[in-house]
Amino acid sequence: MARLECSRSIDRRPCGASGGGTATNRPSGLEALISEGPAGSFLARLPQRAAEALLGEAVRLDLPPGAVIYRDDEAPRVIVVIAGVLRLFMGDPDGRQVTVLYAHPGDVLGLALTLGGPAPISIQAVSTTSVVALRVDSLRAMVAADPVVARTCAEELSRELYRAFDEVAANAFRTVHQRVARHLLDLATPDEERLVARVSQQEVADAVGSVREVVARALHDLREMGLIETSRDKIIVLDPLRLSEEASGRL
Q: What's the CA gap between 72 and 70, in Å, rounded?
């Protein structure tokens, strides 16, 4: 996977006016993440004063598909997803990869790096994605001073840990067909009344920790079962219920 130069591929803009302490130029959808939805999102569970203060200093990043927003040799970042999908993944020296978890609107990535120290992980945009990058030093200061913020961060870290447990178990115990089906459901987003995962076969292989040839056979089988349609750069989920049953081993 080629490394994308952030200065050329990522659009940055401030989320709030300087000195004001609150976000005044928020990207579409961000207000909802603070107040009424989605249920359980990180910003919505923070005290509103804390969320407003963090967003007043935050920077919006608009990412093209494939852009790597964090690598394991860089300073920690705290990223909240506004729109699109991110993946947190690990790689080995031979270039193989495995996805640890996906982040959707309302999710946060980077808390463990910020509070616990470096880890051998990277974060990449799967689709066209908008995020906000929170100031790490400000969040650390809030965690030290505000028990509610500290508890919210602890709860979020627990959720990430359990999701990582699920992903490890899936990669260890499920067949390639089941893993591919699961990742397609995680990646698919609504598009004209259909669910579409805009990924290539190689990207699916990277996600499930396999090779392209094996994943191509699994996709062929799922297509023959009438569960998906495939093209060069996207996979259409035709039957989400049956694909979910395949992912869980019940089909």
A: 7
For residue 31, what pLDDT is reported? 56
CA dihedral 205, 75, 132, 8 (to 10 degrees): -70
Residue at 63: amino acid letter: L
Q: Between β-strands 228-230 and 189-191, what pairing exists: parallel, antiparallel or unpaired?
A: unpaired
- Domain positions in the chain are 6-170, 175-248
41 sits in which H/E element: none
pLDDT of residue 142: 95
| pTM of the complete model | 0.71
The rounded distance, in Å, linking the Cα atoms of 173 and 184 is 18
| Confidence class for position 7, pLDDT limits 50, 70, 90 | very low
- Tokens describing residue 247: 């992912």
pLDDT surpasses 60 at 86: yes
113 closest CA partner among 135, 136, 134, 130: 136
Structure tokens at 87: 């993946």
Which whole number is the average pLDDT over 95-117? 85
User: Pairing between strand 235-237 and 228-230?
Assistant: antiparallel
CATH number of 175-248: 1.10.10.10
Question: What is the band of 189 on the pLDDT scale with cuts at 50, 70, 90?
Answer: confident
The residue count for the chain: 251
For 6-170, give the CATH class. Answer: mainly beta
The tokens 């115990």 sit on which residue?
Answer: 173
Mention every residue, 6+ apart, whose C-beta is less than 8 A from residue 154: none
**Sorting pLDDT into bands at 50, 70 and 90, what band is 27?**
very low
